Amino acid sequence: MATIDLGKIKQVWRGTYNNSTAYAVDDLVEYTDSGITSSYICTTASTGNAPSSSGTAHGSWAYVAKGAASFTSPLTTRGDIFYRDASGDARFPKGTTGQVLTATANDFAWATPSGDCAKIASGNAGGDGVTMVTVDNIFTSDYEIYKIYTSWREDAWLKVQLLNASGTTLSANSYEFSGSYAKRNTANSSTDYTGYSQFGQDYFPMHYWNGSDTIPGYAELTIMRPTDSATKPVGYVTAFASDDTTYYSHTHGWAYKVATGLRGLKFLAESDDFHNSGVGEFRYAVYGFKG
Amino acid sequence: MSKIAIHDHSNGPEAVTSVRDLTSSEQTAHNAFTARLSGDNDPRKKLADDLAKKETDRAAGIEKLKGLGLTADEATAVSG
Q1: Which of A10, A118, A193, B72 is least surrounded by CB atoms within 10 angstroms?
Q2: In chain B, what residues touch A183 (CB-CB under 8 Å)?
Q3: Structural domain boundaries enclosing A55
Q4: pTM for the model
Q5: Are residues A187 and A48 in the same domain?
Q6: Contact assessment for residue A51 and residue A57, using Cβ atoms and an 8 Å cutoff
């Protein structure tokens, strides 16, 4: 009686591919090729022929379900941005506070905002019980006008020295300033208006009178073109200070009598009066404006 | 020793901050700086003294004007 070989009447799962197993047509196996696991069906009886190599199926096998490479994130740090660079997935680290994302020729980059007005710097004392606070590398030729704001909760007055383009403190007796003030004394309800001036000093004041522990001395300093080394640095201060009995509103202009470019400022207390918070809290902010 | 805080804004609004002790020469300079501006050397003291003298002179002037027969209001108005 004749025998008819019908072959397999259904596919047979053979598990993970084994190089020494003889596979028959319609056998199904699992095999990992180049890190990608797929399932295969045997199309021609085969022994010792891996189902695929480098993503290409062997002639004895065909893919049933082709796997995909597992995803490995390139991100490592909080704030990272996921993007594609010239070669593939990549990590773009977060910028610094205040920076904005800008497009470049092929990718993008962090940049300090460069509109007509930009925040250049802000901060506090930087420590507790500090006598001097230097705010360095704030002036560039990118902006023509700079505004520097300070607030200090201390029964003292705030002095300033300039830093030249090399970062050296200008402490020669070449500062001059003159101004005027309105003084209101709540004790006797009197108001005085008069002026003040000093020459040949090694500082200029931000607020010429004492603030207090509960009423900060406030000051706004304006400097134009501080990086211009061909001109003598000049500026203008408007300020308010009160010891809670006498209120001083005052303005003064100042000049440094030697032409020099600037890059920063140094604020000086008489002793360790600058603090990050509480009594003695000192804060500053710097903004630049284009001309 | 006093301390100085240095805020470096080379990289933008957020500073890289370091705090260190003043060097001995910095401390000496700062002590001299403070001495020049404190106590009797405080440049604001002359302003205060001038204002106090002005008020004293004004009060004396009012009394003299009153001695000449002006009322207190008249003497105060004349004295400015």
Answers
A1: A10
A2: 51
A3: 12-65
A4: 0.70
A5: no
A6: yes
